[in-house]
Write a structure and sequence with these properties.
The protein has one domain (2-66): Gcn5-related N-acetyltransferase (GNAT) (Aminopeptidase), CATH 3.40.630.30. Helices cover 32% and strands 34% of the residues. The chain has helices at residues 2-10, 25-33, 63-66, and strands at 15-21, 37-44, 52-59. The chain has a 3-stranded antiparallel beta sheet. A hairpin with a 7-residue loop joins strand 2 and strand 3 (52-59). The radius of gyration is 14 Å and the shape is elongated. The mean pLDDT is 91.
């Protein structure tokens, strides 16, 4: 994950987004420890309609960075 973040920053990305399945609390906790937060966006999980995918985002730039 560190390598992906370095690559994204080096490419000028302002954020990273991912989807995590509602029944995967281990992955959700992992991403939260890395600084990802829930966006509030969801969608049905295509492989199992009983599950939902939650979108998470990690912002790579601060407000000060955006103003430069």
């Amino acid at each position: 994950m560190d390598a992906v973040e370095r690559w994204a920053r080096g490419d000028g990305a302002g954020e990273l987004r991912l989807m995590v399945t509602s029944n995967n609390s281990v992955a959700t906790a992992f991403y939260q420890r890395l600084g990802y937060i829930f966006t509030g966006n969801t969608e049905p999980y295509p492989n199992d309609p009983a599950l939902v995918e939650y979108e998470m985002v990690k912002y790579l730039r601060t407000l000060q960075d955006a103003g430069r």
